[in-house]
Structure formats: structure tokens, C-alpha cells
Amino acid sequence: MPSWMKPVAITLDCPEPLALAAFYQQATGLEQHPDSNADFAGLNGEHGLLLGFQRVEDYRAPSWPGQVVPQQLHVCFRVEGDLDEVEARLMESGAHRPGHQPHGDRARVLTDPAGHPFCIVR
């Protein structure tokens, strides 16, 4: 089936775009978009996909796994190597590990410094 829509950006709300972009840049190795600023920062991904971070006043972090503030978006990242080692590096960079881990040994749910849940999978 021919595709008539191609994803060009995934954008996360956050209180500090440059700080959150720095977290994901360290974790992914993606290059920061040259027009990044305090209101909108981006990382240039593969195939032209931009991972963006936009400033939102009065930002409220998702309350995963609860739904007081829904997650609204969940990104998964395939990782190479041992999940424990990757998780430790991410936590050193500012990620957190919620107590609820629904995927067993296959994946880990973490939250970025702004509270967005994401998974690392083998």
C-alpha cells in the first residue's frame, strides 16, 4: 500500500526544552537541530524524523502508571547490550525508574527528567 503520510516530527511538551533535548541527545547520540532555543529544541533523527521538545507553561508531568495526568505519548527505544547497564547510564543522566514494570525482562519503563514514560527494549 502506498503511503501518503510520513512522520516528520514527534514533539514532547516540557518545562525546559534545551535540558530535555540534552538528556535525549546524550541517550541517543542524535544531533541537536541548529535552530533549537529555550522555547523549542529538536534533535535530528534518522530519515529526517525530528524529536522535538516544546516549552509549556505550567507543565504537569504524566503520572504513569496512574491517569491523574495521562501519559498521552509513549516512545520505545531499541537498545544494544544489557538492559541493566543501559538503564544505569540513563538514570545517571536524569531518568527515573517507576516501581511498576509491566514487561518483565523484555523491557524497562523509565521516565525522562520531565516525567514522560518511555521504554528501552532489547
What's this entry about, in short?
By secondary structure, the protein is of the alpha/beta class.
Helix and strand arrangement:
Layout: E1 9-14, H1 17-28, E2 31-32, E3 40-44, E4 50-55, E5 75-78, H2 83-92, E6 107-111, E7 117-121
Parallel strand pairs: 1-4, 5-7
Antiparallel strand pairs: 2-3, 3-4, 6-7
Description:
Helix content is 18%, strand content 27%. The protein has helices spanning 17-28, 83-92, and strands at 9-14, 31-32, 40-44, 50-55, 75-78, 107-111, 117-121. The strands form 2 sheets. It has a 4-stranded mixed sheet, covered by helices on one side. It has a 3-stranded mixed sheet with strand order 5-7-6, with helices on one face. A hairpin with a 5-residue loop joins strand 3 and strand 4 (50-55). The longest helix has 12 residues, at 17-28.
Integer average pLDDT: 91
What series of H and E elements makes up the topology? EHEEEEHEE
Largest sheet: 4 strands, mixed
Distance between the termini: 29 Å
Helix/sheet category:
alpha/beta
Task: Tag the structure with descriptive keywords.
alpha/beta, 27% strand, four-stranded mixed β-sheet, 122 residues, 2 helices, three-stranded mixed β-sheet
